[in-house]
Amino acid sequence: MRIFNRREFLGGIGIGGLLASTGASHLFFNARAQGQGIGYDLLDPRNPANFTNPLRLPSDRGLLGMLSPSQNLTLTTREVTRELAPGVSAKLWVYESSEAGRTYENPILRMTKGARLDATLKNELSEKTIIHWHGLNVDWKNDGHPSYEIQPGETYPYGYSVQNRSGTYWYHSHPHGHAGEQQYAGLASLFLVDDEEETELSRMLDLNLGQTDIPLILQDKQFNNGSFAYTPDDDALLSGFIGDVVLGNLTINPFMDVSTRIYRFRILNASNARTYRLAFTSGAGQAPFSVIGSDGGLLEQPYQVTEVFLAPAERIDLLLDLSRYQVGDVLFLESLPFNPMHQEHEHGVPMTKFPVPDGGQFYILKLNITRSGAFDRGIPARLSEVSAMDTTGAAKRDFIFAAPSDIGHGGALYWSISGWTFEMDRAPVSVKKDSVEIWELINTELSMPHPMHIHGFQFRVLNRKGSPEQISRLAVDSSGLLPAETGWKDTVHVWPNETVRLAVNFTHGFAGEQVYMFHCHILEHQDLGMMINYRVG
Ligand code: C2O
Ligand code: CU
Ligand code: CU
């Protein structure tokens, strides 16, 4: 086994700045400073009794307020101190914005398909940044390519029309080498697109965004003896930085009062590295729910399930029918235990011991049924149309995720994509504009699951092969697809030994050659170079 020499490694790939910045506590608990003396036992998400904090629901202002911009939107990155649970505050980095006399932080943006977004990013951090609009079809100048990063004090203009169908998209910071640090500190929120189909579904099910239609952003932080600081050690850089405190909408251990009706949850995994195995449980039982949408909007039909995996950057849109419950009943949104398949540890790097390891069980959100009412709406049998992709004559390309390598980077272990690591000015892949390609993502044995994300285009999953049993038993058809993969995706989780085939249609209407990225959305992997440019010319 090689010693993971982080200094040489980071220096070797030109992101030595990460070292300097991770030394500072950009995000930390003030609980002790306030004399509360809150220890980990009160924040432990494995204890259901800790779920006593009202879930932050998006309102019309403030942190995670909903905003439909009617003018040029200014998003200013800055540090604020906010309460994440009563008596527990932390420093966060947020996108601050104001409109019509109201101030927003990390606004949940709501746009109608076809509308134009004009926005100015203003960098008031002490380091470079840039915004990426995750899942949206935009040209590369609007995509947050790190070559457009801006320095402290600078601004960046965005302007594009929203081409995507309705769906749960998101936006977050994307500077090279600092994505993990900045998203961990808070720079991420949702971008919801509405269209007629969406409006019709909400009307049919009598759903109200922020009340019965709940956007839910999941993140985990490391308690670290009362400090929330982003301090990945060598293990965390290799295996991903996971936390033992779990937040829903920037609320630690949240609860929500609900009534006996259908609720919609649009869940984003905005964690740096943690995968969730989501289920709704009451006592020992699992409540069925219906998956209705994924990264790129509604599926053709609902799929009734009792669990879904949600990897970093993925979104799941689901309906939970509580009409058969009674006042006084309690459910939990929970992450069930699973095998995290960290087979990279065959390389001799020990798993860091956390109270809540990757794949460990914990609770996420408590649902208290406090009201009952007549509810007579049912889930429609058909939701949308998801056209098949024509792959006749499609070019085929393979990408291999091998065991981490220690060659050529000062003896450090790092992940790559077919042996490539990120170089700002080099695009190892060139795709013909307006063509369809089949991308085969091959994960190998001494590896770990990698949530792979393609910028610029939503894709379709054609099939999964070699899936571990915990995944294959959830497949909805003989090609191994999971319910969410019957729709449009921009991020796909590839487990060790799996081969996942995607179809991507690279048709775009932008002038000139575009340069996008393909990367792992475990942010430590992305920051250390498990990312490549691809050109669409
Ligand atoms: Cu959400 Cu390039 O990432
Ligand atoms: Cu993206
Ligand atoms: Cu990865």
Keywords:
537 residues, seven-stranded mixed β-sheet, 7 helices, 39% strand, binds CU-O-CU linkage, binds copper (II) ion
Written description of the protein model:
It is a single chain. The protein is mainly β and 537 residues long. The chain has 7 helices and 34 strands. The strands form 6 sheets. Strands 1, 16, 18, 19, 22, 24 and 25 form a 7-stranded mixed β-sheet that branches. The protein starts with 5 loop residues before the first helix and ends with a strand. Residues 1-26 have low confidence and may be disordered. CU-O-CU linkage (C2O) binds next to strand 9 and strand 33.
Question: How are the SSEs ordered, and which strands pair?
Answer:
Elements: H1 6-12, H2 17-22, E1 53-54, E2 62-63, E3 66-67, E4 73-85, E5 88-99, E6 102-105, E7 108-112, E8 116-123, E9 131-134, E10 155-161, E11 167-173, H3 179-185, E12 188-194, H4 196-204, E13 213-221, H5 234-239, E14 245-248, E15 251-252, E16 254-259, E17 262-269, E18 276-282, E19 285-287, E20 289-294, E21 297-305, E22 308-310, E23 315-321, E24 330-335, E25 362-371, E26 395-401, E27 429-431, E28 436-443, E29 450-454, E30 459-465, H6 469-472, E31 491-494, E32 499-505, E33 514-520, H7 523-527, E34 531-536
Parallel strand pairs: 1-16, 2-6, 3-7, 4-8, 7-12, 13-17, 16-25, 26-28, 27-34
Antiparallel strand pairs: 4-5, 5-6, 8-10, 9-11, 11-12, 13-14, 14-15, 17-23, 18-19, 18-22, 18-24, 20-21, 20-23, 24-25, 28-32, 29-31, 29-33, 30-32, 33-34
The structure holds CU-O-CU linkage and copper (II) ion (2 copies).
The site of one copper (II) ion has 6 residues, from loops.
